[in-house]
Structure formats: C-alpha cells, structure tokens
Amino acid sequence: MAEPTDFRHIWVPPERSGEPTVLALHGTGADEHDLLPLARLIAPGAGVLSPRGQVLERGMPRWFARHAEGVFDTDDLVRRAGELADFVDDAAVKYGFDRDNVVAIGFSNGANIAGGMLLTRPGSLRGAVLLGAMVPLRPEPRPDLSEVAVLIGNGRNDPIAPAEQAEELARMLDDAGASVQMAWHDGGHEVTADVVETARAWLAKLRTATGSPPLP
C-alpha cells in the first residue's frame, strides 16, 4: 500500500471542520502546484490534497502510461488508479480528513485518472469534476456508482478530448448509476470561467447534500 510520502504532494488543511477534501489531479506536464488555484475557486474553504503523477513521459509528469496520443495503456491505468486510491486512504489517516467525503478535480490526464478511479475503485471518490476528460477504459461489468456525483466539463472543439469521448463517458457513468451533469463550452482543451462557475455551483449542491458547510 502506498504511503503519503510515496507521492510528492501538497496538503492544504480545510478552513473549517466538516469540509470536503478536494483531490487535485493535474494534467500532463504539470505538477502538484498547478491545480491549487482552480481548487480554491471551485471549492473555497475545502481541504486540498494535491499529488504529483509518478509516470514520466519525455520528462513530463503524468498519471499513467499511454501508447500514443489518445491511446491509453489500460493495464497501467488500472494499476496507477489503485495506487492513487491507496495513497488517498493513507493520507486520510495521516491528515485526519473524512475518507468518505473526497471529491476529485482533474484536468485532462488528471480527469482521466479520476475517471479510472471511479470505474475501477468504486467508493474511492464521493464525486468528481472531470475537465477535458476522455473515456479512460470500458470495464465490464460496470461498477455501482449510485452514490457518486460527476460533473464533466469539456470543450465542443477540443482536439485532444473530443466531444464524443465526453459524451460516451457521461453515458458510461450514468449507466453505472452516477448522477452526471455536463458543462460544455465552445473552446478547446482548456478550462473556461463559465465552466468553473458551473463547477462551483455544482459542488455547493453536493456539499449541501452531504452535510458539509455551505460555501463562503
């Protein structure tokens, strides 16, 4: 089982007890600092656990290996998703946050590893904001995600994560029982202000449903 120190990471304690913990998952070539501002915008006051991916592709950190652009090494994805879920388990003990109240916010490769956690380690996340997401894998049978809420925020003109991939991912998660909401923007592989605002409002509703303090 991974220890918290196995992943280089940043831990930002919550401002108040009862806050959710955001698992911030960066995209390819970024690091544990990259999504901290976005996490604060979407979930002000929440705790933030922001690790760095352990796979290097031409020197750039990633969460799992791939064979080519858009062609994932699914065996490595499954293994790495399990290691990340174990890391969150151990971090919850180390830092004292509620393991059942963890919401991932991931961009691009970070969204895809979060999707992999949902599909291969059900129960590891209470919810997820998947930005610039693709279908990470297609498990059969589908897991039971009836207690999970997911927001997918993608660009209709994204050349890296095509719209049809986001739509298929939404259908797959819906088929598994998750509560899924789509947030489209007209751009490409990016995070827009309107999607951030949608994600903030979405998370505010999820916090209310789970009994977390309201957003400041």
Written description of the protein model:
The protein is of the alpha/beta class. It has helices at about 35-40, 75-95, 110-120, 165-175, 195-210, and strands at about 10, 20-25, 45-50, 55, 60, 65-70, 70, 100-105, 125-130, 150-155, 180-185. A seven-stranded mixed sheet has the order 1-3-2-8-9-10-11, sandwiched between helices. A two-stranded antiparallel sheet has the order 4-5. The chain has a two-stranded antiparallel sheet with strand order 6-7. Helix 2 (about 75-95) packs across helix 3. About 45% of the residues are buried.
Q: Give Rg in angstroms.
A: 16 Å
Q: Structural class of the secondary structure composition?
A: alpha/beta
**Could you name the CATH homologous superfamily?**
Alpha/Beta hydrolase fold, catalytic domain
CATH classification, class level: Alpha Beta
Provide the CATH architecture. Answer: 3-Layer(aba) Sandwich
Largest beta-sheet characterization: 7 strands, mixed
Q: Say what the CATH topology is.
A: Rossmann fold
Outline the low-pLDDT stretches.
none
Q: Report the principal-axis shape.
A: globular
The tally of structural domains comes to: 1
* Terminal-residue CA separation: 36 Å
β-strand number: 11
Instruction: Estimate the helix proportion, in percent.
Output: 25-40%
Estimated share of beta-strand residues: 15-25%
Order of helices and strands: EEHEEEEEHEHEEHEH
Mean pLDDT: 93
Question: How many H/I helices?
Answer: 5
